[in-house]
Amino acid sequence: MSLFDLFYPRTCPFCGGYISDRQIAAEHIEWICPKCWSRLPRTEQDIKAENSTEMALTVGKTSEKKRLHLSRAGAYLFYEKGHAIQRVIHRMKYSDLPEWGMELGRQAVLDWRDETFFGEMDVIIPIPLHPRRMHERGYNQSEYIARGISEFTGIPIDTSHLTRVRNTPKQALQDGEGRKTNVEGAFAVNHPEQLYHKRILVVDDLITTGETMRACLQAMRVIRGAQISVFALCKAQ
């Protein structure tokens, strides 16, 4: 054990156990222990058609999928309140640990067996934060997830076309109907013609009811001929 580890030991955010230098050298993962890494609540939604993420966005309607130009959707992990994954996502978003999102984005690319989910994309667009919230937080966690995906796939990231034009209250504080009205008109697309007929992967950290992502997809309907896929790090059960 190094002197640094003696005073500032690395502990796993899932189980609280100590992470040794030997484990890091073997697994190349610095912030989660190997046992918990193997037990992440993976969804396998890369190979599951009509999964819970897609159903949340389309309300189970084929017509809605077509209307939103949605090709496919999937989440890497299941999210459950009270589970350790909630603590990880919370710390990633609010405790200046966005690199956790980048690592999980990388791992999703490695884990998902259907390589076409990422391999056929022209550009990755992370869900944007409103400039005011971006200033307060200092980073966009969804962009870090996108960076992890981009690093392993080579797909470029675009943060200039999709913008958040309303600084909406947090979705977690809204009730069912309030979640929908809260994000209506919250997004806009700048120069959509530059994205015409592109295969676009939209990335977010967490999908619960799907209303935020639906509002985003609604705004992106102005992109003619686009084929849009959605990747979420987590999907609430």
Structure summary:
The protein has 237 residues and is of the alpha/beta class. The chain contains 12 helices and 6 strands.
Describe this structure in words.
This protein is an alpha/beta fold and 237 residues long. 40% of the residues lie in helices and 16% in strands. It is built from twelve helices and six strands. The strands form two sheets. It has a four-stranded parallel sheet, sandwiched between helices. Strands 3-4 form a two-stranded antiparallel ribbon. Strand 5, helix 12 and strand 6 form a beta-alpha-beta unit. Helix 7 crosses helix 10. The longest helix is centred in the middle third of the chain and has 13 residues. It is globular and about 50 Å long. The N terminus is likely disordered.
Helix segment tally: 12
* N/C terminus separation: 40 Å
**What coarse outline follows from CA principal-axis ratios?**
globular
Order of helices and strands, N to C? HHHHHEHHHEHHEHEEHE
Share in β-strands: 15-25%
| Low confidence ranges | 1-7
Number of beta strands: 6
Key attributes of the depicted protein:
237 residues, alpha/beta, two-stranded antiparallel sheet, 6 strands, disordered N terminus
Write the layout of secondary structure elements.
Elements: H1 3-7, H2 21-27, H3 34-38, H4 52-58, H5 62-67, E1 70-79, H6 84-94, H7 99-111, H8 116-119, E2 123-126, H9 131-137, H10 141-153, E3 162-164, H11 176-183, E4 187-189, E5 199-207, H12 211-219, E6 227-236
Parallel strand pairs: 1-6, 2-5, 5-6
Antiparallel strand pairs: 3-4
